[in-house]
Design a protein that fits this description.
The chain is mainly beta. The protein is built from one helix and eleven strands. The longest helix is centred in the first third of the chain and has 6 residues. It is globular and about 40 Å long.
Length: 114
Amino acid sequence: QVRPVESGGGLVQAGGSLRLTCTAPGIITSVFNSDDWAWYRQAPGKQRDLVATINLRGGTVYADSVKGRFTISRDNSRKRVYLQMTSLKPEDTAVYYCNQGSAWGQGTQVTVSS
């Protein structure tokens, strides 16, 4: 099973921006292109919550808490999924995970300081 790999997390001040990238080393292009992908996040002591999804046609769904601030996108030619995060808030602090079906990455930490 291919395991996603996240990158791009870090420490940013409130109001700042970050772009997360998800790759899937070794995944077959046709498999990548035919699947839905998602970003989740988990804050300390809380459950893992859905942030955004993107289907094979590029259709997107967002959690209410990030609508208008986050954008999920995919580059099928490069087999990558992105999460552009703007106007970040301290409550966005969490480990962000890339998901495809039953496959999960190890996550990337995003910390937003006030």
